[in-house]
Design goal:
This protein is α/β, with parallel strands linked by helices. The protein folds into 4 domains: 7-14 and 63-274, 3-Layer(aba) Sandwich (Aspartate Aminotransferase, domain 2); 15-62, no CATH class; 280-386, Aspartate Aminotransferase, domain 1 (Alpha-Beta Complex), CATH 3.90.1150.150; 411-484, Orn/Lys/Arg decarboxylase, C-terminal domain (Ornithine Decarboxylase, Chain A, domain 4), CATH 3.90.100.10. 38% of the residues lie in helices and 13% in strands. It contains 16 helices and 16 strands. The protein has a 7-stranded mixed sheet, with helices on both faces. It has a 3-stranded antiparallel sheet with strand order 11-13-14. A two-stranded antiparallel sheet has the order 4-5. The N and C termini lie far apart (60 Å). The model has no long low-confidence stretch (mean pLDDT 96). The structure holds pyridoxal-5'-phosphate (PLP). Pyridoxal-5'-phosphate (PLP) binds at residues 89-91, 94, 115, 117, 167, 171, 195, 197, 223, 235, 441-442. Pyridoxal-5'-phosphate is lined by residues 89-91, 94, 115, 117, 167, 171, 195, 197, 223, 235, 441-442.
């Protein structure tokens, strides 16, 4: 195929050239009805290209195959058999993928360091999760992805499991051994779904970790807005092989997805694919070089340490994304939350995740020497400022293994059944009815259906006073918890 083409962008240009007059949504009619105060902030372009797929971008019967062609170009570019665009984030893609591989009340192997959208998929899909636990590193207080042998053991104990869901890379940039896990899954005849939300750039540079489709995964979903140039919410599914039927995946996406997918998002996806095919190598080369330089410079700052390649070894991570820079600030005597807040307020610099001892930043193809220079300089400033920061209450992280709770009830029943709200100190021994996910990274500490232990409660209680954000729990302050009614 001609990778220099960009069918969605070309069709938007044709719409503009034709000067179509629309009597269909969106009601702003390519910006004509926009309040000037909105225009002043957002500009014209966002509205002039915000058009319908049907009877605008394409004809009524979609005979131009505009979006289909863009998807085919993306599939060819990354070596997938099929690619589908989605405009509801990987949060929806992961749900569609899980519905496609595991019918209600079947068993599904899930890496327990999953994002909350995966646990939501388990709840909505009504499946029994077989949690494959990550390796909790007690020194770093970090979970490393499960390994092929962990998956083999889970499949041996649960031969009726329908599929496996693996997360790689994590929000901390650590990668799983996707090749090894897919081999084990395929030996047992089950498909592997990889949530590669953070790995949209991997297919376009061989110096980055291997990506799922190239090493045997059956379905890979990725958020192109996270590390690529997609607009927020844009996500892509890739399929390889015949273990998951494209029509099944498409039907499941159709069950959940919007009937008004944003053409703007499709356009940005289309442009990103063309850019990466044509210029990905040099752009990502430059990003990698800058990230390596930033890593060295930050590691040399007293009080900061960078999560480096030392974590790439058996029992830990199988690989690491050099573009995700995780800065440990523990030696400063302050938390990652405080460093993130200071940087936002005083340096107007926004970081990615922050936890009780770290912050993470991402370098992408979009950075230049000025942006990364400012990053390093701002971290030097926050180190100096940290001496005057208030000493906050500490988070009490759980011991290794303490997060491996027993699922005693179908998560769907726990979530939708009768529940009650109890003070946190009374929740020990009860069954969780809600998700409780410190955010970011949004990995649930508690999932519906899990038996709650006092150690986990102690950890959760210590979080909010230290600055931890728990947006999904009914009571984010963790004074109460929603549990299954007895
Ligand atoms: C591992 C993982 N999967 C899925 C998602 C959801 O992606 P999105 O924000 O595109 O809905 C996230 C979001 O942070 C994530 O970290």
């Amino acid at each position: 195929m001609e990778q220099s083409r960009a069918p969605v962008l070309e069709a938007i240009s044709a719409f503009h050239r034709r000067g179509d007059v629309s009597f269909n949504p969106p009601g702003h009619k390519q910006g004509r009805g926009i309040d000037p105060r909105v225009r002043e902030v957002l500009g014209d372009a966002v509205f002039t290209s915000d058009i319908l797929s049907m009877n605008a971008l394409d004809d009524r019967l979609m005979r131009g195959r505009v979006v289909e062609q863009a998807q085919e170009l993306m599939a060819e570019a990354v070596g997938a058999d099929h690619t589908f665009f989605s405009t509801c984030g990987s949060s929806l893609s992961v749900k569609s993928a899980l519905l496609a591989v595991a019918p209600p009340e079947s068993r599904l192997l899930v890496s327990r360091n999953a994002h909350k959208s995966v646990v939501a998929a388990v709840v909505l899909g009504g499946v029994w999760p077989v949690w494959v636990h990550p390796h909790f590193d007690g020194d770093l207080h970090l979970s490393h992805p499960p390994e092929p042998e962990d998956v083999r053991q889970a499949l041996t104990e649960h031969p009726d499991a329908r599929a496996m869901l693996l997360i790689s890379p994590t929000d901390y940039g650590t990668c799983a051994d996707i090749a090894g896990v897919s081999e084990v899954c395929h030996e047992h005849g089950v498909p592997l779904v990889v949530d590669e939300a953070w790995g949209a750039h991997f297919p376009f540079h061989d110096g980055l970790p291997q990506w799922g489709v190239s090493v045997g995964a059956d379905v890979v979903l990725t958020s192109v807005h996270k590390m690529g140039s997609g607009l927020e919410q844009s996500s892509v599914f890739h399929l390889r092989g015949d273990r998951v039927r494209p029509s099944t995946l498409r039907a499941c996406e159709d069950l959940l997805g919007t009937t008004s997918a944003s053409v703007l998002m499709f356009a940005a996806l289309d442009g990103w694919r063309r850019q990466m095919v044509q210029q990905g190598r040099p752009l990502l080369d430059a990003a990698i070089r800058r990230a390596e330089r930033v890593r060295e410079e930050l590691d040399a700052v007293p009080g900061l340490s960078i999560l480096g390649r030392e974590i790439v070894r058996p029992g830990c991570a199988a690989d690491q994304d050099v573009l995700k820079i995780v800065v440990d600030v523990r030696e400063l005597g302050v938390s990652g939350y405080q460093v993130a807040d200071w940087l936002h307020e005083h340096a107007h610099l926004n970081v990615g995740l922050a936890d009780h001892r770290r912050v993470a930043v991402q370098i992408t193809h979009a950075d230049d020497d000025d942006t990364v220079g400012y990053l390093v300089q701002s971290f030097r400033r926050v180190v100096t400022a940290s001496t005057d920061m208030e000493r906050m209450p500490e988070v009490r992280p759980p011991r290794p293994g303490a997060l491996e709770l027993e699922t005693v009830m179908l998560p769907r029943d726990a979530f939708f059944g009768a529940s009650e709200t109890v003070p946190l100190e009374k929740a020990g021994g009860r069954v969780a009815a809600e998700l409780v996910s410190p955010y970011p990274p949004g990995v649930p500490v508690l999932a519906p259906g899990e038996r709650i232990t006092s150690e986990v409660l102690d950890y959760l209680a210590s979080g909010p006073p230290a600055g931890m954000l728990i947006p999904d729990a009914a009571d984010g302050s963790m004074r109460t918890l929603r549990v299954v009614a007895e």
